[in-house]
């Protein structure tokens, strides 16, 4: 009996030793993800200011790399236009544990990048070429390059894919339909009428008078619209990164390209007639269309977009325009699964 007990103890110790070694190996693998010791951006903590050549001169844009993965590298395109990478502030809580490398990036004239403040550069054509220059500077290529664009970033991601998809491994379009006229129709005919009638009436009066600077306009939107369709939490529970996003928003480029209204893109804005719906069929790279039930964008239209591209997948969260914050339980597993499926050759 004593012999049996001793033998059992030895076996248990061996099993525990093997388990400890496996855990140690996993720890070593994970530590390499955060090892910047052989990189030229170690001293800056992954930050690189990348020079962008434009017809108006050379300007620098902000990027910050998080982690290392030679086959899964995600460039994040923020919304706005004129927003910041801060809208992705909680990606740190989900992607590192999956070993996925991701890169924050502030587009030209956004808060952390240079601000030439030249409206001739505020075009989709310019920003597509800007992304291409960032790609080259970061050594992203078809074997590792995933592009994730949210809101205006989704417009930019689609435009980039339509011109440069041979450089991409995967594409994620989050919370943006392929047609501004479609977005406007949904905002005015579906979302607007969901507001209390007196609130909608007051908002329309302010917009009719083009009195967008009226503090009452922002107050009404924040209380009745943003907490329903931008981030479905009470304002006091919005995370700091989202508050910083709003604080750092470049309103000049935002109004120039998007317009001052939150019920669609106004006629005078440069994006007012943007529509690539009939070109989606040209996108062959694996694509995830990520919509949200309470978004400012029609989730049914986003589902259709996944069927319009050659190799698409559709996921609809229970969140709103910033669904990474109000439904992370759906948003991040969808993004992670897509990236890994493409990486492992399992996407179809």
UniProtKB/TrEMBL annotation:
Keywords: Hydrolase. One of its GO terms (cellular component) is membrane. The active site is at 151 (nucleophile), 295, 321 (proton donor). One of its GO terms (molecular function) is peptidase activity. Residues 74-328 form the AB hydrolase-1 domain. The keyword Hydrolase applies. It holds the Pfam family Abhydrolase_1. One of its GO terms (biological process) is proteolysis. Belongs to the peptidase S33 family. This is Proline iminopeptidase-family hydrolase. It comes from Winogradskyella ouciana.
């Amino acid at each position: 009996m004593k012999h049996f007990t001793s033998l059992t103890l030895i076996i248990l110790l061996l099993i525990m030793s093997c388990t400890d070694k496996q855990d140690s190996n996993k720890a070593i693998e994970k530590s390499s993800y955060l090892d910047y010791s052989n990189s030229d951006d170690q001293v800056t903590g992954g930050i690189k200011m990348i020079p962008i050549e434009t017809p108006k001169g050379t300007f620098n844009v902000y990027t910050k790399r998080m982690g290392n993965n030679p086959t899964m590298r995600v460039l994040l395109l923020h919304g706005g236009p004129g927003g910041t990478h801060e809208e992705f502030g909680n990606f740190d809580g989900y992607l590192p544990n999956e070993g996925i490398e991701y890169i924050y990036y502030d587009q030209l004239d956004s808060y952390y990048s240079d601000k030439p403040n030249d409206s001739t550069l505020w075009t989709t054509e310019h920003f597509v070429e800007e992304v291409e220059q960032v790609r080259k500077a970061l050594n992203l290529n078809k074997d590792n390059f995933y592009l994730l664009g949210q809101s205006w970033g989704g417009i930019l991601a689609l435009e980039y894919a339509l011109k440069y998809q041979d450089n991409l491994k995967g594409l994620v379009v989050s919370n943006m339909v392929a047609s501004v006229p479609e977005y406007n129709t949904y905002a005015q005919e579906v979302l607007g009428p969901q507001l209390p009638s007196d609130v909608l009436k007051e908002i329309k009066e302010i917009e009719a008078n083009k009195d967008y600077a009226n503090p009452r306009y922002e107050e009404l939107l924040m209380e009745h619209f943003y907490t329903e369709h931008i981030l479905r939490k009470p304002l006091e529970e919005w995370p700091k990164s989202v508050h910083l996003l709003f604080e750092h928003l470049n309103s000049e480029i935002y109004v120039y390209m998007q317009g001052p209204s939150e019920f669609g893109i106004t006629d005078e804005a440069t994006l007012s007639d943007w529509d690539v719906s009939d070109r989606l069929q040209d996108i062959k790279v694996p694509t995830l269309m990520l919509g949200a039930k309470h978004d400012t964008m029609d989730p049914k239209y986003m589902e259709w977009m996944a069927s319009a591209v050659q190799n698409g997948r559709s996921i609809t969260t229970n969140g709103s325009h910033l669904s990474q914050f109000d439904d992370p339980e759906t948003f991040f597993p969808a993004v992670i699964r897509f990236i890994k499926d493409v990486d492992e050759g399992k996407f179809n």
